[in-house]
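Reminder to self: tokens first, then the designed residues, so the page reads top to bottom the way the pipeline ran.
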């Protein structure tokens, strides 16, 4: 059976070696624009404004650039993406032509093989039939509701009386939207792009984004404490000093905004605060497990799905690029629960699930594991943002600027490409052009 990797299957966690960017210009003390966050949106906004002749400073809380695009090569000896993994909509994704020009290795995964298990056995023909019918039933229900403009919880239209529906709901909700079906809107789901073609990056998507950010004027380890935007300029306060600018672009996640990690003076208007709350962060976390050469009959660049009853599901990407990794995915409410329990509990859970379906040889071949910690990362507080049921229109409110001085960009504001790294880049470019026009 093949699993077509699209927007509704894995859009989506923190240790890596990331080089400091080499700055292309001296940092202006009073730039035209201060950009908060050196993730995909912030880097794209900076590049666009520099191309338009504006002076820019990017302030970044972390000691690295890239945000939720983050490749670790140290832990397993091969590239592992803790966050963004696929070039979704590769025919439109701004990173795709750059990857090809820079010699990155891309591999399409739209028709990846899927191994489907029921307990310790492969699913039989009848079980695969039930799985396929449940998948079609759920997709059709969500598509129909979205097409009709129903801004309702996805759970309210799911055909929950069908066998295998919990497996399909896990793929569509926690593994794709980062939320359980009760927590996101059919309309929001429907308005997102289908994402084909989907390309993986052998060297790591985070490595690609880091390359994209080289040469930009970024100040690292400079978390923003306060943004004063009520005067004739915008003043951005960090431990490394205060920057005054004509405008500011905020690219941090809705999780960070909602947590009040950055103080705004004056406070954000109520309608903006409501928009932030109505497009909260979901969670997709990864549990990479390394093995010593055993392959358990699983295909390279494939998927391992198994029958579950309940919400505790962990589906696996198998041997990406031939690396000795099975990468488990957990999301939604169960992902948050595992994050609270900690890495050891998450690794034990994933190993236990594999043991049930692949046997005791899993333990014999196991080398080490890890768990991505976007839930705990104070500069993310989640994976990516989705609209609550009945609140899809709030994405637009979230993106509205304030007084042509305070602007917002990021994956939550990328329209049909929301919830993706490429979408964040497109959002940063678009908002940067809006800022340039506002500055005249």
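Designed residues (440 positions):
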């Amino acid at each position: 059976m093949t699993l077509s990797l699209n927007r509704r299957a894995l859009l989506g966690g923190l240790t890596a070696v990331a080089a400091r960017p080499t700055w292309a210009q001296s940092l202006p003390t009073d730039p035209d624009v201060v950009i908060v966050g050196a993730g995909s949106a912030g880097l794209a906004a900076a590049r666009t404004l520099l191309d338009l002749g504006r002076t820019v400073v990017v302030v970044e809380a972390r000691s690295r650039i890239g945000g939720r695009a983050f490749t670790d090569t140290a832990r397993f000896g091969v590239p592992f993406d803790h966050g963004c993994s696929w070039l979704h909509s590769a025919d439109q994704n701004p990173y795709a032509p750059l990857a090809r020009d820079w010699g990155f290795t891309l591999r399409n995964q739209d028709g990846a093989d899927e191994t489907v298990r029921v307990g310790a056995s492969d699913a039989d023909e009848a079980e695969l039939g039930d799985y396929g019918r449940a998948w079609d039933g759920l997709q059709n229900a969500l598509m129909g509701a979205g097409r009709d403009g129903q801004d309702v919880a996805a759970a309210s239209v799911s055909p929950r009386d069908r066998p295998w529906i919990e497996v399909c709901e896990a793929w569509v909700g926690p593994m794709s939207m980062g939320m359980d079906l009760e927590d996101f809107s059919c309309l929001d789901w429907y308005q997102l792009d289908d994402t084909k073609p989907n390309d993986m990056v052998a060297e790591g998507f985070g490595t690609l984004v880091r390359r994209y950010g080289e040469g930009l004027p970024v100040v690292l380890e400079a978390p923003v404490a306060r943004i004063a935007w009520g005067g004739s300029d915008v003043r951005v306060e960090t431990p490394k000093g205060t920057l005054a600018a004509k405008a500011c672009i905020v690219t941090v996640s809705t999780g960070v905004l909602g947590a009040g990690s950055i103080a705004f003076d004056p406070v954000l208007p109520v309608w903006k605060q409501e928009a932030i709350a109505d497009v909260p962060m979901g969670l997709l976390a990864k549990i990479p497990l390394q093995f010593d050469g055993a392959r358990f009959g699983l295909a390279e660049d494939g998927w391992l799905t198994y029958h579950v009853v309940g919400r505790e599901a962990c589906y696996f990407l198998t041997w990406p690029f031939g690396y000795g990794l099975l990468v488990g995915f957990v999301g939604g409410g169960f992902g948050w629960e595992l994050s609270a329990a900690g890495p050891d509990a998450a690794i034990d859970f994933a190993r236990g699930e594999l043991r049930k379906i692949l046997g005791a040889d899993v333990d014999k071949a196991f080398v080490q594991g890890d768990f991505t910690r976007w839930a705990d990362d104070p500069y993310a507080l989640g994976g990516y943002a989705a609209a609550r049921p009945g609140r899809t229109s709030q994405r637009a409110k979230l993106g509205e600027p304030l007084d042509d001085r305070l602007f917002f960009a990021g994956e939550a504001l990328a329209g049909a490409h929301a919830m993706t790294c490429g979408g964040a880049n497109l959002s940063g470019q678009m908002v940067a052009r809006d800022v340039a026009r506002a500055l005249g």
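DSSP finds 13 helices and 23 strands in the chain.
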